[in-house]
């Protein structure tokens, strides 16, 4: 009987394969980074072929590390960076262009063009999403329109489209030799091409964006046996779970009931609240998305607040300014001062996402004086994440009509104790870090394990969730609101920076 379940976690900066036992403990973990490609300002690309190479390498490496054979794995689940858009050849598997990453802004003019006829919420009723550079539909439209021969080849059935999950599943299950062209409803809900009610591609949306339906993957549930892996080290293992990374973290945090929420601190920040089977249309700048769907059951939906730049700001300070040598050093530098010294950093590098949705905003550092030093800047970098999270929490509480009593957290930045304490302080409520911090990969493993009987039930998974640490607010209300007021002033300075260009 298989003793383990695998999770392929394909993120914005790296790919890893983690192997979990029945108790959710990590038996093996292999990870490799891939290139970040910036052809020009505002454009962000990945080489999908490189990502598939890294995928094969980490799967092989983890299986060797754990000394496992394919028969030892009950299933493989996949979780992935969402919205990133790939078009590849059906016959060869070769991408026709670099993948357009979720952060890429080259379709900003198209956003404005579509918004002129119906406004920024033109497609929100069907998709739960505003018009934005963020989602896949306009990225795919750009590839069809701007890369030679792509549209003609797509209409002839020679090309396939997918988010990263589709590209990996297709390759993992055989590629040109019978690979499955599928996605799950969580990833499909991020394309702006799927109808939230029908959980299928919407003909009106496809016509509006000019997308040939024949290049789109089949939409499946998040937890079912799709097929078998053909990669030698895992040959014959069922591929049985797909979740977009933030939905995977929601599942990994055992947020299975309406009203439960988590915040993932990674390249960006993503706060999701499960709204049950109800599709809640946001009035306060949030997204409505699919949370997960188990095979044979109705979908669960979620409200989401997406923040583009959080952990990426630490990397930016490291790589572009050389202020620190490693990302982990940011906490030590920030602790060299008692407070932010009046310095605020609004990281609107790619515009602002939730709750503002200002694609023409740009980054601002405000409040500098002769007193300011690199410690104040480091502190402002960390505090920017907490301030942006409070903005989203406030919007979510208004939309959901219920207060968020506790914030469950995960992601790489939750190891930063200074940030987590400031997050509790600026929210005025408890912040909780779970014992298992790798919740994204764990969520993919849970989805695959449920589909194959490796895990008995959702109740079984909920019983496994445990707390590592709780941060309680220690800041008085007056100070909290004063700091937040200055943050709001700094955010306002970033608005409409590109007007007139």
What would your notes on this structure say?
- The protein is of the alpha+beta class and 501 residues long.
- The protein has helices at 48-66, 108-115, 124-127, 136-146, 150-155, 164-172, 185-188, 203-209, 245-252, 311-321, 330-334, 374-400, 417-427, 439-452, 458-462, 477-494; strands at residues 4-10, 14-21, 26-33, 45-46, 73-80, 85-89, 99-100, 159-163, 182-184, 194-195, 200-201, 218-220, 223-228, 238-244, 261-265, 269-276, 287-292, 300-307, 344-346, 364-366, 406-410, 430-434, 467-471.
- The strands form seven sheets. Strands 17-18-16-15-21-22-23 form a seven-stranded mixed β-sheet. Strands 3-2-1-5-14-13 form a six-stranded mixed β-sheet, with helices on both faces.
- A hairpin with a 7-residue loop joins strand 17 (287-292) and strand 18.
- The longest helix is centred in the C-terminal third of the chain and has 27 residues, at 374-400.
- The N and C termini lie far apart (63 Å).
- The relative contact order is 0.12.
- The model has no long low-confidence stretch (mean pLDDT 93).
